[in-house]
Amino acid sequence: MKALAYEKAHPLDAFALELVDVAEPRPRDADLLVGVRAVGINPGETAIRRTRSAEPGGRLILGWEFAGVVEAVGPDATGFAVGDRVMGTGDMARDGAWAERLSVDHRVVARIPDRLSFSDAASLPIGGLTAWEALFRDRDRHGDRDGDRDGDGDRDGLAAGIDRVLIVGGAGGVGTLATQLLKSRTSALVVSTASRPASREWCTRAGADAVVDHTGDVPGQLRDAGVDRVDLVLSTAGTSGNIGWIAEILRPFGHLAAVDLNGPLDLGPLVGKSVSLHTETVFSSFMAGGDVAGQGRILAELAADAVAGRIRPLTTTVLGGLSVDTMRTAHELAESGRTIGKTVIAM
Fold first, then answer.
1. Which of 41, 85, 203, 265 could cross-link with 192 by S-S, CB 3.0 to 4.6 Å?
2. Do residue 303 and residue 339 come from a single domain?
3. What is the pLDDT of residue 319?
4. Are residues 94 and 52 in the same domain?
């Protein structure tokens, strides 16, 4: 089969992905074999391309956000049949979805409702899972998936006392879905950050109650908007550089959920307020023995929310065909730092 692969880590200006012939995937007993119809492109994948090389003599196939059709079902894979339309993520220790087919554990896959296109479905898994696990992890750990464990009338899993949330990077995939999940499932006040008119408008359309510019005086802008403190900051970008003002706007015993921590972080500014720090990566379920099956259930809820109109898919750019040119364009957009929503490659 055809796949986009590379051998050595490389920058964008030396783009080295090639469309090559590779062996067909070998499904495990709990796997689905999926014919890929669309893939979502994520900034994290561009970072891996820049920093991770294959073992000597090997090659890497990235891509962990996809939609497609089930072509085969392993003997231990329950709940799916050949021909099902599905979306999901994958396991970073295995080949990804930048290929004609992939094998994937059925527990990180959900069916796609008929009214949801492959391109729109492919825009949801990584951003949706990241936002959900960062925001609602307390509910997931306690198994309360139906509603109001804290008695406040919300269908939420936010810890008690979280009424005001600031999302740093509200126009990106995680930020957009986080805003929509909060507005559809909780009564929280949601403030997003965005620095350009187009991204500010996008955040407002997603449901943000207010939008502030993260390149300016965020505490001052919040005060001008009548928000003196927030209970939770969900930071999707620039966390290390923003830690000073994040600490300033958080209430004592507040929460910081960060999805971009991959280097040194000075926690000193947070200590005086006894802030709780939550890190998030959707791949911890595989890497650290988490609730793998829980991710499939979350994906099913995201799909149902999209069809019901409670959230809208993120697709803003669709590129046609899996090729070196389309992937290079997708990576250029992802690395520009100015994308809104999600770039999807449709096979």
1. 203
2. yes
3. 98
4. yes
